[in-house]
Amino acid sequence: MKLKTTLIKNAHIVNEGSVFKGDVLIEDTYIKEVSESISAKSADVHVIDAEGKYILPGVIDDQVHFREPGLTHKATIETESKAAIAGGITSFIEMPNTNPQTTTIDKLEEKFEIAAQTSWANYSFMFGGTNDNLDEILKVDAKNVAALKLFLGSSTGNMLVDNPEVLENIFSKTNLLIAVHCEDEATIKVNFEAYKEKFGDDIPIKYHPNIRSEEACYLSSSKAIELAKKTGARLHVFHLSTGKETGLFSNKIPLKDKKITAEVCVHHLWFTNDDYDNKGTLIKWNPAVKTKNDRDALWKALLDDKIDVIATDHAPHTIDEKNNVYTKAPSGGPLVQHALPAILEMYHKGKISIEKIVEKMCHNPAMLFEIEKRGYIKEGYFADLVMVDLNNPWTVKKDNILYKCGWSPFEGTTFKSRITHTFVNGGLVYQNAKFTNVKAAKRLTFNR
């Protein structure tokens, strides 16, 4: 499908550490020109006046669970990618713990086929490691797949990789970036049994961060980093949740030269254990939301560049599932529609600059995963763009939540910033709370 030529005029363009007033010309799928002033060359050019609005590169979310195949009562690639587009996320990397799990090449290709038919956003998937699928891991082409995901805690099915010899083998032999969930299962098990003995199944949710403790996180993260240093593997540690873990990471070298990187998720930057009384199991995540001191330390490490990426770990469950007692309520929640507005709220509070938001949510994921021609507002790059009105408040309500599960931990929250337009590969797919009939998503490719 031939896309229109679009000229965005008078925008505040946020890119590579600066904000400047200018225009962006989109031709077909690419950014043709970025300049202080561009004139429409013909009457066929679709002109959008962005006066007073900000243009950001499309957000790249490096960690989502869209639940397809096998768990589609919770979510689908179509429903969640659509919610992502409304939240300014134009590319996502999805996790392997679906049903069946993405631990063979055949199952991986089946997911790519589903996304090619239904996704609203650009897509890639992680391949899943187990204790016995090294042969399959070694077949994965690093140019076509985002990364290898290893659960070193909190896994589903047989995806807990807990055999030290297998782990060292994987770290030594794969040339894929290895992304890890780090929580020590043995520590968690001891903590859980103690609380289960005291409370039965109905453990008060406030004890969740005691069960999935700082010790469990730090022990697992430090072991993974030690193994990466020993083997030379390229390691990315997902969703840091403790201040203690931030000491494991460095800001001494630029991101492009780092072999060991880290991510923090929106919920760990927003909520604290004080919110369990009000939100209950709706904010039950693994790793757990912890203390205000932990949250403050995560913010400091993010701003100091010890933490490289902000992501969502979007992981929806139905409201009935979440409303169970502690032992039966699954961990995870939906976030892609509200992640960028939530972080922009922190910009309004003076916590982070808009340039830093773009660095952590757009530039760095593109650099870290070596994603081809995305994450920046540059001539010759794919036209994945988000237009934001920073002063157009709206409140999260049931009737504007797009997740298939129909709820959000941000329900009732008023955000000052609103996503007004989302472009994917040059196509205007979302405009003023409505989706257009343009679907322009592509499979992500990698410069490796």
Automatic annotation (TrEMBL):
Residues 54-429 form the Amidohydrolase-related domain. SUPFAM superfamilies: Composite domain of metallo-dependent hydrolases (SSF51338), Metallo-dependent hydrolases (SSF51556). Its EC number is 3.5.2.3. One of its GO terms (molecular function) is metal ion binding. It comes from the Bacteria. GO terms for cellular component: cytoplasm. CDD domains: DHOase_IIb. The keyword Metal-binding applies. Catalyzes the reversible cyclization of carbamoyl aspartate to dihydroorotate. NCBIfam families: PRK09236.1, pyrC_multi. This is Dihydroorotase. It comes from Snuella sedimenti. The lineage of its organism: Bacteria, Pseudomonadati, Bacteroidota, Flavobacteriia, Flavobacteriales.
